[in-house]
Design brief:
about 140 residues; alpha/beta; 4 helices; 5 strands; about 20% strand
């Protein structure tokens, strides 16, 4: 069952439910964002399959969303890393880039799980090139 939120849309991009498109709309909050993280962590615990996020915020506002980022990030992001999850941000806003930079300095291992893309197509190529194809013996 898909998580329903007021200001963020979620859509699986593959039948295995390991690649998740996350699209933000005006007025999304950190509470909504961390509900997604908690939901994904529960899913990974149930299935044993890491989830790769593609994060798209086409509104790219100049102010940070309401709510606290760092307290919950310190608790949840290490669990995401440990579970093998990663994220590709599509043309992130300057606020998001700053948060990525600050958090990566606080938690250097985070940088292995975060990538940036210039377009949704580029993000999909990055993510799907990482997803193993069981029918291809040459896959990584």
């Amino acid at each position: 069952m898909m998580l329903e939120l007021d200001h963020i849309d979620l859509k699986w991009l593959n039948p295995e439910e390991t690649v998740l498109l996350v699209e933000y709309h005006p007025n999304w909050t950190w509470d909504e964002y961390f509900k997604i993280v908690e939901w994904i962590l529960e899913k990974v615990e149930q299935t044993g399959k890491p989830v790769q996020f593609i994060s798209v915020d086409t509104y790219r506002r100049m102010a940070s969303p309401r709510g606290d980022f760092f307290v919950r990030a310190r608790t949840l992001f290490p669990r995401m890393l440990k579970s093998g999850c990663s994220v590709v941000y599509v043309s992130p806003s300057s606020i998001t880039k700053t948060l990525i930079s600050v958090y990566s300095k606080l938690s250097p291992e985070t940088s292995k799980a975060i990538r940036l893309a210039n377009s949704l197509d580029e993000a999909k190529q990055m993510v799907f090139s990482k997803v193993p194809d069981n029918d291809d013996p040459k896959s990584d």
